[in-house]
Amino acid sequence: MSAEDTVSDAAGAISPDRFVDISYDEVIPNNVALGSDKQLQRALEGWRPKYLDWWTGMGPVGFQQSEVYLRTAVGVDPAGWAKFGYVKMPTYRWGILLAPKVEGRTIPFGRHKGEPAWQEVPGEHRALLRRLIVVQGDTEPASVEQQRFLGATAPSLYDMRNLFQVNVEEGRHLWAMVYLLVKYFGKDGREEAQALLERQSGQMDNPRILGAFNESTPDWLSFFMFTFFTDRDGKMQLAALAESGFDPLSRTCRFMLTEEAHHMFVGETGVQRTIEATCAAMVKAGIKDPNEVEAVRKLGVVDLPLLQRKANFHASVTRDLFGSEISSNAAEAFGSGIKGRFNEVNLKGDDHVLQEATYPVTRFVDGKLVVEDAPALRALNSRLLDDFIVDCQGGIDRWNKSVEKVGIDFKFVQPHKGFNRRIGELGGKRISPTGEVLTEDQWNAMSGAWLPNDEDMEFIRSLMKPCHEPGKYASWIAPPRVGVNSQAGDFEYVKIA
Ligand code: BYC
Taking the model in full, what pTM does it have? Predict the structure, then answer.
Protein backbone atom coordinates (compact mmCIF):
# COMPACT_ATOMS: atom_id res chain seq x y z
CA MET A 1 0.00 0.00 0.00
CA SER A 2 1.42 3.41 -0.84
CA ALA A 3 1.57 6.36 1.49
CA GLU A 4 -1.04 8.18 -0.57
CA ASP A 5 -3.49 5.36 0.02
CA THR A 6 -3.19 5.76 3.72
CA VAL A 7 -2.58 9.35 4.51
CA SER A 8 -4.16 11.29 1.70
CA ASP A 9 -7.05 13.44 2.79
CA ALA A 10 -9.71 15.83 1.60
CA ALA A 11 -6.98 18.34 0.80
CA GLY A 12 -5.57 15.95 -1.81
CA ALA A 13 -2.63 13.62 -2.27
CA ILE A 14 0.71 14.22 -0.63
CA SER A 15 3.35 15.76 -2.78
CA PRO A 16 6.23 13.24 -3.07
CA ASP A 17 8.90 15.82 -2.18
CA ARG A 18 7.36 16.15 1.29
CA PHE A 19 8.42 12.62 2.20
CA VAL A 20 12.00 13.81 2.62
CA ASP A 21 13.69 10.47 3.23
CA ILE A 22 10.87 8.41 4.73
CA SER A 23 9.98 5.33 2.77
CA TYR A 24 6.25 4.61 2.96
CA ASP A 25 6.37 1.84 0.41
CA GLU A 26 7.60 -0.72 2.90
CA VAL A 27 5.58 -2.63 5.49
CA ILE A 28 7.25 -0.52 8.18
CA PRO A 29 7.63 3.11 7.05
CA ASN A 30 11.11 4.31 7.97
CA ASN A 31 13.96 6.67 7.27
CA VAL A 32 16.64 4.26 8.47
CA ALA A 33 17.10 2.33 5.22
CA LEU A 34 15.47 -0.69 6.81
CA GLY A 35 15.32 -2.45 3.44
CA SER A 36 19.11 -2.65 3.34
CA ASP A 37 19.33 -4.65 6.59
CA LYS A 38 17.29 -7.76 5.89
CA GLN A 39 17.88 -9.40 9.27
CA LEU A 40 16.66 -6.34 11.17
CA GLN A 41 13.77 -5.90 8.77
CA ARG A 42 12.70 -9.53 9.31
CA ALA A 43 12.97 -9.18 13.09
CA LEU A 44 10.82 -6.03 13.11
CA GLU A 45 8.33 -7.46 10.63
CA GLY A 46 8.10 -10.45 12.96
CA TRP A 47 7.34 -8.17 15.92
CA ARG A 48 4.73 -6.20 13.97
CA PRO A 49 1.83 -8.72 14.15
CA LYS A 50 2.39 -9.05 17.91
CA TYR A 51 2.26 -5.28 18.19
CA LEU A 52 -0.98 -5.20 16.18
CA ASP A 53 -2.44 -7.90 18.45
CA TRP A 54 -1.48 -5.80 21.44
CA TRP A 55 -3.03 -2.69 19.83
CA THR A 56 -6.32 -4.46 19.16
CA GLY A 57 -6.38 -6.17 22.54
CA MET A 58 -5.05 -3.40 24.80
CA GLY A 59 -5.46 -0.21 22.72
CA PRO A 60 -8.56 1.99 22.40
CA VAL A 61 -11.77 0.13 23.17
CA GLY A 62 -14.28 0.60 20.32
CA PHE A 63 -13.74 3.03 17.43
CA GLN A 64 -11.07 0.81 15.86
CA GLN A 65 -13.08 0.71 12.64
CA SER A 66 -13.95 4.42 12.75
CA GLU A 67 -12.29 6.88 10.39
CA VAL A 68 -10.23 9.25 12.53
CA TYR A 69 -8.76 12.51 11.25
CA LEU A 70 -5.14 11.86 12.22
CA ARG A 71 -1.80 13.32 11.34
CA THR A 72 0.93 11.02 10.11
CA ALA A 73 4.57 12.00 9.86
CA VAL A 74 5.62 12.21 6.23
CA GLY A 75 9.01 13.80 6.77
CA VAL A 76 11.32 14.64 9.65
CA ASP A 77 12.24 18.14 8.55
CA PRO A 78 11.15 20.81 11.04
CA ALA A 79 9.25 22.74 8.33
CA GLY A 80 6.08 20.72 8.54
CA TRP A 81 6.34 16.97 8.80
CA ALA A 82 2.71 16.02 9.22
CA LYS A 83 -0.08 15.14 6.87
CA PHE A 84 -3.69 15.02 8.02
CA GLY A 85 -6.23 12.53 6.75
CA TYR A 86 -8.88 9.99 7.75
CA VAL A 87 -7.32 6.75 9.00
CA LYS A 88 -8.69 3.67 10.76
CA MET A 89 -6.40 3.34 13.75
CA PRO A 90 -5.22 -0.25 13.15
CA THR A 91 -4.04 0.86 9.68
CA TYR A 92 -2.02 3.83 11.02
CA ARG A 93 1.48 3.80 9.49
CA TRP A 94 3.58 3.27 12.62
CA GLY A 95 7.09 3.95 11.43
CA ILE A 96 10.68 4.28 12.51
CA LEU A 97 11.68 7.89 12.23
CA LEU A 98 14.93 9.41 13.37
CA ALA A 99 15.92 13.07 13.27
CA PRO A 100 18.66 13.75 10.70
CA LYS A 101 22.22 12.82 11.61
CA VAL A 102 24.44 15.72 12.64
CA GLU A 103 27.80 15.12 10.98
CA GLY A 104 30.75 15.36 13.36
CA ARG A 105 28.57 15.30 16.50
CA THR A 106 30.56 14.73 19.68
CA ILE A 107 29.50 13.48 23.12
CA PRO A 108 28.47 16.68 24.93
CA PHE A 109 29.01 15.68 28.59
CA GLY A 110 30.50 13.22 31.05
CA ARG A 111 33.78 11.30 31.02
CA HIS A 112 33.73 10.90 27.23
CA LYS A 113 32.97 14.58 26.55
CA GLY A 114 34.37 15.70 23.19
CA GLU A 115 34.81 12.18 21.79
CA PRO A 116 32.87 11.34 18.60
CA ALA A 117 29.27 10.28 19.36
CA TRP A 118 28.84 6.49 19.32
CA GLN A 119 27.09 4.97 16.32
CA GLU A 120 27.17 1.53 17.98
CA VAL A 121 26.48 0.58 21.60
CA PRO A 122 29.58 1.14 23.73
CA GLY A 123 30.22 -2.27 25.32
CA GLU A 124 30.96 -1.00 28.82
CA HIS A 125 27.67 0.93 29.00
CA ARG A 126 25.47 -1.65 27.32
CA ALA A 127 23.44 -2.76 30.34
CA LEU A 128 22.72 0.78 31.51
CA LEU A 129 21.73 1.92 28.03
CA ARG A 130 19.43 -1.05 27.54
CA ARG A 131 17.79 -0.43 30.91
CA LEU A 132 17.03 3.21 30.10
CA ILE A 133 15.64 2.34 26.65
CA VAL A 134 13.44 -0.35 28.20
CA VAL A 135 12.12 2.03 30.89
CA GLN A 136 11.38 4.67 28.25
CA GLY A 137 9.77 2.10 25.95
CA ASP A 138 7.63 0.68 28.76
CA THR A 139 5.87 4.00 29.40
CA GLU A 140 4.58 4.30 25.84
CA PRO A 141 2.22 1.29 25.61
CA ALA A 142 1.42 1.81 29.29
CA SER A 143 -0.17 5.19 28.58
CA VAL A 144 -2.25 3.73 25.72
CA GLU A 145 -3.49 1.02 28.10
CA GLN A 146 -4.31 3.60 30.74
CA GLN A 147 -6.43 5.61 28.30
CA ARG A 148 -8.14 2.79 26.48
CA PHE A 149 -11.67 3.32 27.79
CA LEU A 150 -11.88 7.09 27.28
CA GLY A 151 -13.27 7.14 23.73
CA ALA A 152 -16.73 6.14 24.95
CA THR A 153 -17.06 9.26 27.13
CA ALA A 154 -15.34 11.79 24.87
CA PRO A 155 -16.79 15.27 25.44
CA SER A 156 -16.60 15.97 21.67
CA LEU A 157 -15.34 14.44 18.43
CA TYR A 158 -12.50 16.99 18.52
CA ASP A 159 -11.35 15.63 21.88
CA MET A 160 -11.86 12.04 20.81
CA ARG A 161 -9.62 12.65 17.82
CA ASN A 162 -6.96 14.21 20.02
CA LEU A 163 -7.06 11.19 22.34
CA PHE A 164 -6.55 8.82 19.43
CA GLN A 165 -3.79 10.99 17.98
CA VAL A 166 -1.95 10.82 21.29
CA ASN A 167 -2.55 7.04 21.42
CA VAL A 168 -1.22 6.26 17.95
CA GLU A 169 1.83 8.44 18.55
CA GLU A 170 2.55 6.69 21.85
CA GLY A 171 2.35 3.48 19.82
CA ARG A 172 4.91 4.96 17.43
CA HIS A 173 7.15 5.86 20.37
CA LEU A 174 7.06 2.21 21.37
CA TRP A 175 8.23 1.36 17.83
CA ALA A 176 11.03 3.89 18.24
CA MET A 177 12.41 2.13 21.33
CA VAL A 178 11.82 -1.35 19.91
CA TYR A 179 13.86 -0.39 16.85
CA LEU A 180 16.80 0.51 19.11
CA LEU A 181 16.45 -2.69 21.14
CA VAL A 182 16.20 -4.99 18.14
CA LYS A 183 18.87 -3.29 16.06
CA TYR A 184 21.49 -2.75 18.73
CA PHE A 185 20.93 -5.33 21.50
CA GLY A 186 20.69 -8.66 19.71
CA LYS A 187 18.83 -11.51 21.38
CA ASP A 188 18.21 -9.77 24.69
CA GLY A 189 16.94 -6.72 22.80
CA ARG A 190 14.41 -8.92 21.01
CA GLU A 191 13.35 -10.44 24.35
CA GLU A 192 12.90 -6.98 25.84
CA ALA A 193 10.80 -5.97 22.80
CA GLN A 194 8.55 -8.92 23.47
CA ALA A 195 8.32 -8.13 27.19
CA LEU A 196 7.19 -4.58 26.36
CA LEU A 197 4.02 -6.10 24.94
CA GLU A 198 3.53 -8.41 27.92
CA ARG A 199 3.70 -6.12 30.94
CA GLN A 200 0.37 -4.39 31.50
CA SER A 201 -0.58 -1.18 33.20
CA GLY A 202 -2.04 -1.85 36.63
CA GLN A 203 -1.67 -5.63 36.37
CA MET A 204 -0.64 -7.18 39.69
CA ASP A 205 1.61 -9.95 38.33
CA ASN A 206 3.39 -8.10 35.55
CA PRO A 207 2.88 -4.34 35.92
CA ARG A 208 4.49 -1.51 33.99
CA ILE A 209 7.88 -0.49 35.38
CA LEU A 210 7.21 3.01 36.74
CA GLY A 211 4.57 3.83 39.33
CA ALA A 212 2.54 6.52 37.53
CA PHE A 213 1.98 4.19 34.59
CA ASN A 214 0.05 1.78 36.75
CA GLU A 215 -2.46 4.41 37.90
CA SER A 216 -5.76 4.40 36.05
CA THR A 217 -6.89 7.25 33.81
CA PRO A 218 -10.59 6.96 34.61
CA ASP A 219 -11.94 10.20 33.17
CA TRP A 220 -11.16 13.05 30.81
CA LEU A 221 -9.89 15.40 33.48
CA SER A 222 -7.35 12.74 34.39
CA PHE A 223 -6.43 12.46 30.71
CA PHE A 224 -5.87 16.21 30.38
CA MET A 225 -3.88 16.39 33.62
CA PHE A 226 -1.87 13.32 32.55
CA THR A 227 -1.00 14.84 29.19
CA PHE A 228 -0.15 18.16 30.87
CA PHE A 229 2.03 16.74 33.67
CA THR A 230 3.08 13.20 32.78
CA ASP A 231 3.72 13.78 29.09
CA ARG A 232 5.87 16.68 30.26
CA ASP A 233 7.97 14.18 32.21
CA GLY A 234 8.22 12.49 28.81
CA LYS A 235 9.46 15.75 27.35
CA MET A 236 12.09 16.25 30.06
CA GLN A 237 13.33 12.65 29.95
CA LEU A 238 13.41 12.55 26.16
CA ALA A 239 15.26 15.86 26.10
CA ALA A 240 17.85 14.41 28.53
CA LEU A 241 18.16 11.27 26.37
CA ALA A 242 18.34 13.39 23.20
CA GLU A 243 21.69 14.65 24.54
CA SER A 244 22.99 11.07 24.66
CA GLY A 245 26.39 10.15 23.32
CA PHE A 246 24.70 7.11 21.75
CA ASP A 247 23.71 8.85 18.54
CA PRO A 248 20.81 6.60 17.42
CA LEU A 249 19.11 7.20 20.78
CA SER A 250 19.70 10.93 20.49
CA ARG A 251 18.24 11.09 16.99
CA THR A 252 15.24 8.95 17.94
CA CYS A 253 14.41 11.11 20.93
CA ARG A 254 14.82 14.33 18.99
CA PHE A 255 12.08 13.28 16.62
CA MET A 256 9.85 11.96 19.43
CA LEU A 257 10.02 15.38 21.10
CA THR A 258 8.21 16.97 18.17
CA GLU A 259 5.27 14.63 18.79
CA GLU A 260 5.37 15.07 22.56
CA ALA A 261 4.74 18.81 22.15
CA HIS A 262 1.30 18.11 20.74
CA HIS A 263 0.43 15.83 23.66
CA MET A 264 1.19 18.58 26.15
CA PHE A 265 -0.87 20.99 24.04
CA VAL A 266 -3.82 18.59 24.35
CA GLY A 267 -3.38 18.55 28.13
CA GLU A 268 -2.85 22.26 28.65
CA THR A 269 -5.72 23.34 26.41
CA GLY A 270 -7.99 20.58 27.74
CA VAL A 271 -7.64 21.94 31.27
CA GLN A 272 -7.81 25.51 29.98
CA ARG A 273 -11.08 24.84 28.14
CA THR A 274 -12.48 23.19 31.28
CA ILE A 275 -11.57 26.32 33.25
CA GLU A 276 -13.14 28.54 30.59
CA ALA A 277 -16.41 26.61 30.68
CA THR A 278 -16.48 26.87 34.49
CA CYS A 279 -15.72 30.59 34.52
CA ALA A 280 -18.29 31.34 31.79
CA ALA A 281 -20.99 29.40 33.68
CA MET A 282 -20.11 31.11 36.97
CA VAL A 283 -20.25 34.57 35.38
CA LYS A 284 -23.58 33.78 33.72
CA ALA A 285 -25.05 32.57 37.01
CA GLY A 286 -23.62 35.53 38.93
CA ILE A 287 -21.42 33.33 41.15
CA LYS A 288 -18.26 35.16 42.19
CA ASP A 289 -16.97 32.86 44.94
CA PRO A 290 -15.14 29.79 43.55
CA ASN A 291 -15.79 28.01 46.85
CA GLU A 292 -19.54 27.88 46.26
CA VAL A 293 -18.90 24.37 45.08
CA GLU A 294 -22.42 23.02 45.20
CA ALA A 295 -23.84 25.92 43.20
CA VAL A 296 -21.07 25.65 40.63
CA ARG A 297 -21.49 21.88 40.21
CA LYS A 298 -25.21 22.36 39.63
CA LEU A 299 -24.26 24.29 36.49
CA GLY A 300 -22.72 21.13 35.01
CA VAL A 301 -19.15 22.42 35.20
CA VAL A 302 -16.11 21.51 37.27
CA ASP A 303 -15.42 23.73 40.30
CA LEU A 304 -11.95 25.27 40.34
CA PRO A 305 -10.92 23.80 43.75
CA LEU A 306 -11.56 20.31 42.33
CA LEU A 307 -9.34 21.10 39.34
CA GLN A 308 -6.63 22.18 41.77
CA ARG A 309 -6.95 18.86 43.63
CA LYS A 310 -6.67 16.96 40.35
CA ALA A 311 -3.57 18.99 39.47
CA ASN A 312 -2.09 18.25 42.93
CA PHE A 313 -2.54 14.55 42.37
CA HIS A 314 -1.08 14.40 38.87
CA ALA A 315 1.79 16.78 39.67
CA SER A 316 2.86 14.70 42.65
CA VAL A 317 2.53 11.29 40.98
CA THR A 318 4.47 12.59 37.98
CA ARG A 319 7.25 14.03 40.16
CA ASP A 320 7.88 10.49 41.42
CA LEU A 321 8.84 9.56 37.86
CA PHE A 322 12.08 11.49 38.23
CA GLY A 323 13.41 8.84 40.64
CA SER A 324 15.39 9.59 43.80
CA GLU A 325 16.71 13.11 43.96
CA ILE A 326 20.10 11.71 44.90
CA SER A 327 20.84 8.83 42.55
CA SER A 328 23.99 6.91 41.72
CA ASN A 329 22.17 5.51 38.65
CA ALA A 330 21.70 9.04 37.33
CA ALA A 331 25.33 9.91 38.12
CA GLU A 332 26.50 6.86 36.19
CA ALA A 333 24.21 7.60 33.23
CA PHE A 334 25.64 11.12 33.04
CA GLY A 335 29.26 10.20 33.73
CA SER A 336 29.19 7.58 31.01
CA GLY A 337 27.69 9.96 28.42
CA ILE A 338 24.36 8.13 28.14
CA LYS A 339 21.85 10.63 29.61
CA GLY A 340 22.46 14.36 29.87
CA ARG A 341 20.67 17.23 31.53
CA PHE A 342 17.73 19.14 30.07
CA ASN A 343 19.14 21.45 27.39
CA GLU A 344 22.68 20.16 28.11
CA VAL A 345 24.46 21.56 25.05
CA ASN A 346 23.15 25.06 25.71
CA LEU A 347 23.93 25.14 29.45
CA LYS A 348 26.52 27.79 30.15
CA GLY A 349 28.81 28.18 33.12
CA ASP A 350 29.92 24.63 33.93
CA ASP A 351 32.26 22.02 32.51
CA HIS A 352 29.56 19.42 31.60
CA VAL A 353 31.55 16.87 33.60
CA LEU A 354 30.36 17.95 37.06
CA GLN A 355 33.08 16.28 39.14
CA GLU A 356 33.42 19.27 41.47
CA ALA A 357 30.02 21.01 41.14
CA THR A 358 27.23 20.98 43.72
CA TYR A 359 23.45 21.37 43.41
CA PRO A 360 20.91 22.38 46.10
CA VAL A 361 18.54 19.54 47.00
CA THR A 362 15.51 19.65 49.31
CA ARG A 363 15.94 16.91 51.92
CA PHE A 364 14.16 15.71 55.03
CA VAL A 365 16.53 15.85 57.99
CA ASP A 366 15.52 15.41 61.66
CA GLY A 367 11.85 15.94 60.84
CA LYS A 368 12.48 19.16 58.91
CA LEU A 369 12.75 20.18 55.27
CA VAL A 370 16.18 21.59 54.55
CA VAL A 371 17.96 22.61 51.38
CA GLU A 372 21.47 21.14 51.24
CA ASP A 373 24.16 21.27 48.62
CA ALA A 374 24.81 17.81 47.20
CA PRO A 375 27.35 16.66 44.59
CA ALA A 376 25.80 17.81 41.29
CA LEU A 377 26.55 14.50 39.61
CA ARG A 378 24.43 12.58 42.09
CA ALA A 379 21.71 15.26 42.15
CA LEU A 380 20.80 15.09 38.45
CA ASN A 381 17.31 13.69 39.02
CA SER A 382 16.67 16.54 41.44
CA ARG A 383 17.80 19.06 38.86
CA LEU A 384 15.62 17.56 36.12
CA LEU A 385 12.67 17.63 38.50
CA ASP A 386 13.32 21.32 39.19
CA ASP A 387 13.45 21.98 35.44
CA PHE A 388 10.16 20.13 35.09
CA ILE A 389 8.51 22.25 37.78
CA VAL A 390 9.63 25.43 36.00
CA ASP A 391 8.33 24.06 32.69
CA CYS A 392 4.91 23.30 34.22
CA GLN A 393 4.56 26.83 35.51
CA GLY A 394 4.15 28.41 32.06
CA GLY A 395 0.96 26.45 31.43
CA ILE A 396 -0.36 27.06 34.92
CA ASP A 397 0.17 30.81 34.47
CA ARG A 398 -1.92 30.64 31.31
CA TRP A 399 -4.69 28.82 33.20
CA ASN A 400 -4.61 31.59 35.79
CA LYS A 401 -4.94 34.28 33.13
CA SER A 402 -8.29 32.77 32.06
CA VAL A 403 -9.55 33.00 35.64
CA GLU A 404 -8.19 36.51 36.20
CA LYS A 405 -9.76 37.74 32.98
CA VAL A 406 -13.28 37.19 34.32
CA GLY A 407 -12.48 38.61 37.77
CA ILE A 408 -12.84 35.37 39.77
CA ASP A 409 -10.57 35.30 42.81
CA PHE A 410 -8.76 31.97 42.38
CA LYS A 411 -5.20 31.01 41.53
CA PHE A 412 -3.86 27.60 40.55
CA VAL A 413 -0.55 26.79 42.25
CA GLN A 414 1.86 23.88 42.15
CA PRO A 415 2.02 21.94 45.39
CA HIS A 416 5.27 21.78 47.37
CA LYS A 417 7.83 19.34 45.99
CA GLY A 418 7.33 17.03 48.97
CA PHE A 419 3.54 16.84 48.76
CA ASN A 420 2.13 13.32 48.35
CA ARG A 421 5.42 11.76 47.29
CA ARG A 422 6.20 8.06 47.31
CA ILE A 423 9.67 8.02 45.76
CA GLY A 424 12.87 9.82 46.65
CA GLU A 425 14.08 12.04 49.51
CA LEU A 426 10.57 13.10 50.45
CA GLY A 427 8.81 9.83 49.65
CA GLY A 428 6.34 8.81 52.37
CA LYS A 429 6.74 12.06 54.31
CA ARG A 430 3.60 13.92 55.23
CA ILE A 431 3.96 17.38 53.73
CA SER A 432 1.18 19.86 52.95
CA PRO A 433 0.82 21.57 49.54
CA THR A 434 2.40 24.67 51.08
CA GLY A 435 5.34 22.73 52.53
CA GLU A 436 4.49 22.22 56.23
CA VAL A 437 5.61 18.94 57.76
CA LEU A 438 2.53 17.19 59.22
CA THR A 439 1.78 14.33 61.56
CA GLU A 440 -0.02 11.28 60.19
CA ASP A 441 -3.25 12.45 61.88
CA GLN A 442 -3.00 15.93 60.41
CA TRP A 443 -2.41 14.44 56.98
CA ASN A 444 -5.39 12.10 57.29
CA ALA A 445 -7.62 14.96 58.40
CA MET A 446 -6.67 17.18 55.45
CA SER A 447 -5.69 15.00 52.49
CA GLY A 448 -9.28 14.93 51.17
CA ALA A 449 -9.13 18.70 50.77
CA TRP A 450 -5.88 18.46 48.81
CA LEU A 451 -6.39 15.37 46.66
CA PRO A 452 -9.50 14.30 44.74
CA ASN A 453 -11.86 12.65 47.23
CA ASP A 454 -14.62 10.09 46.64
CA GLU A 455 -17.27 12.78 46.24
CA ASP A 456 -15.11 14.56 43.64
CA MET A 457 -14.61 11.39 41.64
CA GLU A 458 -18.32 10.62 41.77
CA PHE A 459 -19.11 14.12 40.50
CA ILE A 460 -16.58 13.84 37.68
CA ARG A 461 -18.02 10.47 36.72
CA SER A 462 -21.48 12.05 36.51
CA LEU A 463 -20.16 14.55 33.94
CA MET A 464 -18.52 11.96 31.72
CA LYS A 465 -21.36 11.64 29.23
CA PRO A 466 -20.39 11.23 25.58
CA CYS A 467 -20.97 14.13 23.20
CA HIS A 468 -20.36 12.66 19.77
CA GLU A 469 -22.20 15.09 17.49
CA PRO A 470 -19.96 17.15 15.19
CA GLY A 471 -19.43 20.66 16.54
CA LYS A 472 -21.04 19.93 19.95
CA TYR A 473 -19.25 19.93 23.32
CA ALA A 474 -20.15 18.57 26.75
CA SER A 475 -21.31 21.23 29.22
CA TRP A 476 -18.10 21.17 31.21
CA ILE A 477 -15.67 22.02 28.41
CA ALA A 478 -15.44 24.98 26.03
CA PRO A 479 -14.81 24.47 22.29
CA PRO A 480 -11.22 25.01 21.13
CA ARG A 481 -10.29 28.36 19.66
CA VAL A 482 -8.97 26.78 16.48
CA GLY A 483 -9.79 23.43 14.90
CA VAL A 484 -7.20 20.75 14.16
CA ASN A 485 -5.40 21.75 10.97
CA SER A 486 -7.70 24.84 10.99
CA GLN A 487 -10.83 22.77 10.33
CA ALA A 488 -14.24 24.43 10.78
CA GLY A 489 -16.13 24.19 14.09
CA ASP A 490 -18.52 21.47 12.92
CA PHE A 491 -15.85 19.31 11.30
CA GLU A 492 -16.44 15.57 11.78
CA TYR A 493 -13.13 14.57 13.35
CA VAL A 494 -14.22 10.98 13.87
CA LYS A 495 -16.65 9.21 11.56
CA ILE A 496 -17.96 6.73 14.07
CA ALA A 497 -18.45 3.29 12.51
N1 BYC B 1 8.38 3.94 39.96
O2 BYC B 1 18.16 5.87 41.46
P3 BYC B 1 16.68 5.88 41.25
C4 BYC B 1 7.14 9.29 29.06
C5 BYC B 1 13.34 2.66 40.29
S6 BYC B 1 7.58 9.49 30.68
C7 BYC B 1 8.96 2.71 40.08
O8 BYC B 1 15.83 6.47 42.26
P9 BYC B 1 17.09 6.53 38.54
C10 BYC B 1 5.70 9.28 28.76
C11 BYC B 1 14.43 2.78 39.23
O12 BYC B 1 13.99 2.26 37.97
C13 BYC B 1 9.34 9.38 30.68
N14 BYC B 1 10.29 2.52 40.16
O15 BYC B 1 16.30 6.55 39.89
C16 BYC B 1 4.81 10.12 29.38
C17 BYC B 1 15.56 2.03 39.85
O18 BYC B 1 15.36 0.64 39.61
P19 BYC B 1 16.60 -0.30 39.20
C20 BYC B 1 9.87 7.96 30.77
C21 BYC B 1 11.07 3.62 40.13
O22 BYC B 1 17.40 5.16 38.12
C23 BYC B 1 3.47 10.05 29.09
C24 BYC B 1 15.38 2.27 41.34
O25 BYC B 1 14.02 2.68 41.51
N26 BYC B 1 11.29 7.91 30.54
O27 BYC B 1 7.96 9.18 28.20
O28 BYC B 1 18.19 7.53 38.62
C29 BYC B 1 3.01 9.14 28.16
C30 BYC B 1 16.29 3.34 41.85
O31 BYC B 1 16.21 4.42 40.96
C32 BYC B 1 10.55 4.92 40.03
C33 BYC B 1 12.22 7.83 31.49
O34 BYC B 1 11.94 7.74 32.65
C35 BYC B 1 9.14 5.05 39.93
N36 BYC B 1 8.54 6.25 39.81
O37 BYC B 1 16.00 7.22 37.61
C38 BYC B 1 3.88 8.29 27.54
C39 BYC B 1 13.66 7.88 31.03
N40 BYC B 1 11.58 5.78 40.03
O41 BYC B 1 17.11 0.23 37.87
C42 BYC B 1 5.24 8.36 27.80
C43 BYC B 1 14.42 6.63 31.27
C44 BYC B 1 12.70 5.06 40.14
O45 BYC B 1 17.57 -0.15 40.31
N46 BYC B 1 14.48 6.29 32.69
N47 BYC B 1 12.38 3.76 40.19
O48 BYC B 1 15.94 -1.65 39.05
C49 BYC B 1 15.30 6.89 33.55
O50 BYC B 1 16.01 7.81 33.22
C51 BYC B 1 15.35 6.36 34.96
O52 BYC B 1 15.07 5.00 34.91
C53 BYC B 1 14.36 7.05 35.95
C54 BYC B 1 14.76 6.65 37.35
C55 BYC B 1 14.41 8.56 35.78
C56 BYC B 1 12.93 6.58 35.74
Answer: 0.94
